[in-house]
Specification:
Distance between the termini: 29 Å
Number of strands: 13
Structural class: alpha/beta
Number of helices: 11
CATH class of the largest domain: Alpha Beta
CATH architecture of the largest domain: Alpha-Beta Complex
Number of domains: 2
CATH topology of the largest domain: Lambda Exonuclease, Chain A
Radius of gyration: 22 Å
């Protein structure tokens, strides 16, 4: 992948990104890749040398790495920092680097640091739950010791003191520890098998030249088109409907003085965050449909 520097950021930042120290070792998939859409993983592998990404899009990744390095200085005697574990299941070697394992007499607490936004902390993120449960599986499978708790340590980069005082559910401090639901061991392993199955199918499709299974709406972070009923002249909607029929009915119920605003749907991941959107047939077909 080629790095661009559209906004002429300092060369030191470019150098950091051009000299990555990350490696998943000999694993077929890292935990992060295992959770990503199989089509994305295959397209990234196929077109890696042709892909481009701007350094401005990776600034927060640098910040996250720096936070990890600083927090290593707080290590206690019963802490294991940044340990990468490998395990094979269904012939696939899976690896994950665990930020922190706190080893107590009755089991291990697995913690993962996230440099993130307040919105992510305030809304349930299923991928965090999936990631932490795979880490728990790795610890128990490889080290044969029980995991008693999993948690996210969220460092909130856009935290606002004013919002903390005025918004319900807003994080009270710029760092928040979030307890994550720990699945039974069998549920974790079944989930990992299901993800391996999807990636195995995509890998086979790549080998025989067939199309990959398309990304699901959830994987695209798709927001459907909606229809907002607003009082004429107001910015805030009185009601929001998912079909024009429901919107027309609601508008008729409310009477005169209301209008319908169409709020086009979008695929947030594809539009803003996917590295392979320019070489993805599914996304290019979606753009043609939108036009």
């Amino acid at each position: 992948m080629r790095l661009t520097n559209k906004y002429h950021l300092p060369q030191t930042i470019v150098n950091v990104l051009e000299r990555p120290n990350y490696t998943k070792g000999k694993a077929h998939l890292s935990v992060t890749e295992l959770l990503q859409p199989p089509q994305l993983v295959q397209l990234r592998k196929k077109y890696w040398d042709d892909l481009e990404e701007d350094v401005s899009d990776k600034v927060w990744a640098i910040f996250g790495t720096a936070i990890h390095s600083i927090l290593e200085q707080g290590k206690d005697e019963n802490h294991i920092i940044e340990q990468r574990l490998h395990e094979t299941l269904e012939g696939w070697n899976i690896s994950g680097a665990i930020d922190l394992q706190r080893v107590d007499k009755d089991g291990v607490v697995v913690s993962d640091y996230k440099t993130t936004g307040a919105w992510a902390v305030m809304n349930e993120k299923i991928d965090w739950e999936q990631q932490l449960n795979i880490y728990a599986w790795l610890v128990e499978r490889v080290k044969k010791i029980p995991v008693k708790k999993i948690e996210i340590v969220a460092i909130i980069r856009d935290w606002s003191r004013r919002d903390a005082q005025n918004k319900e559910g807003y994080p009270e401090a710029p760092i928040k520890v979030i307890d994550i639901n720990l699945w039974p061991y069998e549920v974790r392993e079944d989930f990992i098998r299901s993800r391996i199955g999807l990636h195995s199918n995509a890998n086979l499709a790549s080998e025989i030249g067939e199309d990959y299974a398309p990304c699901t709406p959830a994987e695209c972070w798709e927001k459907p088109t909606s229809f907002a009923i607003k009082k004429t002249g107001n910015k805030r909607a009185t009601n929001v409907c998912l079909t024009i029929e429901d919107a027309e009915a609601k508008k008729a119920e409310l009477g005169k003085g209301y209008e319908i605003e169409v709020r086009p749907g979008e695929r947030t991941r594809c539009n803003e965050f996917c590295q392979v959107r320019d070489v993805c047939k599914q996304f290019q077909d979606y753009l043609k449909e939108e036009v």
